[in-house]
Amino acid sequence: MSRVLVIGAHSADFVWRAGGAVALADEARVIALSYGERGESGELWKAEGQTIENVKQVRHAEAEKAASALGAEFRALDFGDYPLEVGPERLVQVVDEIREYAPAVLITHTDTDPFNPDHPVAYAVVQRARSLAAGAGVASAFPSITPPQLFLFEPHQPELCNFTPTTFVDITSVFDAKVEAMAAMEAQKYLQTYYAQRAEQRGNHARRASGRSEVRYAEAFQRVLPQVVDRL
User: At a CB cut-off of 8 Å and minimum separation 6, what does 53 contact?
Assistant: First the structure.
């Protein structure tokens, strides 16, 4: 069974970059390290008298609605954003989340993003938490899980973020669900068109790479660890 865990820096990150992959999973959970209440909720801050707590509530509701459209569970750790800070105690929380869910696939940000300081922090936390939860794949003095495969989803400007796509996921069959999920994120309406176009572009790349003419929409991911197979 395909059990997918997506951990993003902010509550909407999973929708734009991995919504299709989430919708295709047999089971999926989304964890947001923060709501993006300070740096990713520009539309909400246009309202007079807006407050941090109200923005968080709106963002939580949006993310739950989006996750529901994709058939996933949404959880928020509410670490705060801009800056996202993850010390030892919070790291243990992330380790526990990964260990408890025991995903087959773990997805997060790239290690570099010159335009968003929270995204590389999320990568570093998730990468370390994964290793701790899995115990490096050997017997350990603490409970451990089978090492999940680690993928990075596509950043907004991939050429500046050390992102090289190694895997295209055909999301044609669930694209309508992704569009519905994106529409739920009203605090960042400006990204809806961008990521719909990106899915179409990546669909073109996937067709050229595979010869599968039926692929209309796709998402790009970068595999971090080698794939282990019985034969090529």
Answer: none
Q: Are the C-beta atoms of 165 and 175 separated by less than 8 Å?
A: no
- For 32, counting Cβ atoms within 10 Å of its Cβ (0-12 exposed, 13-18 middle, 19+ buried), the class is buried
* 185 within 8 A of 12, measured Cβ to Cβ: yes
Q: What is the pLDDT of residues 25-56, one digit of tens each?
A: 999 999 999 999 999 998 899 999 999 999 99
Q: Give the count of beta carbons closer than 10 Å to the beta carbon of residue 200.
A: 13
CA distance 42 to 123: 24
pLDDT digits (tens, 9 = 90+) for 127-157: 999 999 998 656 667 788 999 999 999 999 9
C-alpha to C-alpha distance for 96 and 199, rounded to whole angstroms: 33
Find the DSSP H helices in 139-221. Answer: 175-184, 190-210
**Domain coordinates in residue numbering, the chain:** 3-223
DSSP 8-38: ESSTTHHHHHHHHHHHHSSEEEEEES---TT
Determine the pLDDT at residue 8: 98
pTM of the model: 0.95
CATH fourth-level superfamily of 3-223: LmbE-like (3.40.50.10320)
Contact 103, 150 (CB under 8 A): no
